[in-house]
Amino acid sequence: MSAPDQVRAPDSATPGGHEEPWRRLDPRMILVRPAVDIIRSLPLLIGTLIFGGQNSVWQWLGLGVVGLAVLISIGHCLTARYRITGEQFELRTGIVHRRHRAVPRDRIRTVDVTAALKHRLFGLSLVKIGTGQHSKDGSGELVLDAVSKAEAQRLARVLLRRAEAESRAETEEVLAEAEPRWVRYAPASLSGITTIGAGIGVLYHAAHDLHIEPSDFGPLRALIAHFEAAPWGLALAEAVLPLLLLAALVSVPGYLVSYGNFRLTRDEDTLHVRRGLLTTRAVSIEQNRLRGVHYRDGVALRLLGGARATAIASGLATRLGGAILMPPAPAAHVHEVLAKVLREEQDPTALPLRPHPRRALRRRLLRAFTGPLLAAAALYLIALTGWIPSWTWQLALVLLPFSLAAGWDCYRNLGNRLDGGYLLGRKGSLRRETVALKQDGIIGWQLDRTFFQRRAGLTTLIATIAAGHGAYSIPDLAESDALTLADEAIPGLLSPFLEWD
């Protein structure tokens, strides 16, 4: 049994003899959960009616499965109970298999409040209470699905700031709010390309299952014939440019749904992030849990002058965007907000960094040069078999100058620095990212060297930290520079393992 699941005595009381009564989930969930189960079961019901034929057994079986799911949902709503005592948060769930979970309040790291459309229609919110344990089965968090909005706010306030903090004056500082002009950064997220690709894949598989040939359609057949007759350069441009334009248009609704109503505030020593148009997501981050920030400005965002940022905090789930501090927005504004979040005069990620050795440039240019050549050779050999058009190998050669430019840009972006109690590291080109880690949050180091790095006298320095992704790397440092940087960041940590000349 893991620590968060330890069973406590159900009669534990708060100091001073006060004991909060057991609370139930909001009664309106008795309507919401069964309705959702029925909607999810519609494909099953329709399938039993269509394919069951005159056999009523299958139809009754389908109805029985749906009815059982509805009864389980109603039973969960009626039996789930929770309460807050002076030392812990307790949750009871289950009908046949009763489960009693208790989490010490000093181990609670985050309270994540979300409101999907089904919840918002009834004024409800889903609450996830995180303990900082990252487990695939979700045992590191307790879920209340769902409570009223007022109750969700009370839980977040009490669990993160302790009961005595409730009486303090509310002083909310607004750090950032969504602006309409930020929508222009939506195409840089590339979500539109993903959506179009998924749509094309679904249509292709559906046509394949129905034994439909795309070339049987007149307009599509004419389009394929046009591309086959046109020069490959013109055909590529005519195919890619409309797709990029369509992807840009598709990405705008996705941006609004994810980041609409974005608001970043600070209440005393707790950051609050709220965002979402259809599904409202609210995350609270204690300031003393913040171990750094992650500034991202990929090539598409850089071309538009934008950037985005996430928090590196202990106990904060990075999945599903739980660590977002700033959505894609103007880069200068992102730097201003990060400076406020860190309570610094200047955002550390905006500082100039120390460049890496020229040997790192040679490695990147070599990879950028050999990659397209190997791809061209492979495509040429495949083209000899007749499986692909004979001109496809030339596409790889066209990418050669772009690959070399990306290699140079990747080296130009490499950098590191120690400044103001932060370890700074930058890497990447297409997906450039800058990390600012608080030095007192680093708990260990790892030095990685591949075969080719050893030949070049380079190494990758990895900082281990009990937050975020757990490890952040600075690639292709000179070996002596990596050891010096690690020793200066955390004096004495590596000294027992080093022999200085």
From TrEMBL:
Entry keywords, A to Z: Membrane, Transmembrane, Transmembrane helix
Organism: Amycolatopsis xylanica
Region (Disordered): 1-21
Membrane-spanning parts: 30-51, 57-78, 185-207, 239-257, 365-385, 391-411
PANTHER family in UniProt: UPF0699 TRANSMEMBRANE PROTEIN YDBS, UPF0699 TRANSMEMBRANE PROTEIN YDBT
Keyword Electron transport: no
Origin organism lineage: Bacteria, Bacillati, Actinomycetota, Actinomycetes, Pseudonocardiales
Protein name: Putative membrane protein
YdbS-like PH domain mapped to chain residues: 79-157, 411-487
A Pfam short name: bPH_2
